[in-house]
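The record is kept unedited without comment:

——
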Amino acid sequence: MRYRSLSLLIPCALLLSACTTVTPAYKDNGPRTGSCVQGGPDSVAQQFYDYRIQHRSNDITALRPYLSDKLATLLSDASRDNSHRELLSSDPFSSRTTLPDSAHVASASTIPNRDARNIPLRVDLEQGDQGWQDKVLMIQEG
């Protein structure tokens, strides 16, 4: 009787420990030079769009916590270059040239075929009575 209950208990314990052990999809290979925003991909993207809508300026340095090191450097260099400044006068983070009035980022868990590095997001944007949907690819670096 004792062995029977142990023979049932041991496989259940092994199964439970196997289900709770999670290994990361990739190793973090270094620190970032800038600060990061905390949260999952969809909540970080929502915070990004909310910040852009509340602070209607083209100050790229204010967006630094939301951007990767490489993208922040690229946009900062482009904002200082007169030949690229015109490109940044419109909204570089939307398919339209003007900044939206509202944005809603769909949950990342409802989007199929995502891996640990490339996270596709759908963003419903509105400006006045016009609405459109942008598809954004969030790429996790590290």
About this structure: The first helix runs from residue 2 to 20. The first strand starts at residue 102 and ends at 105.
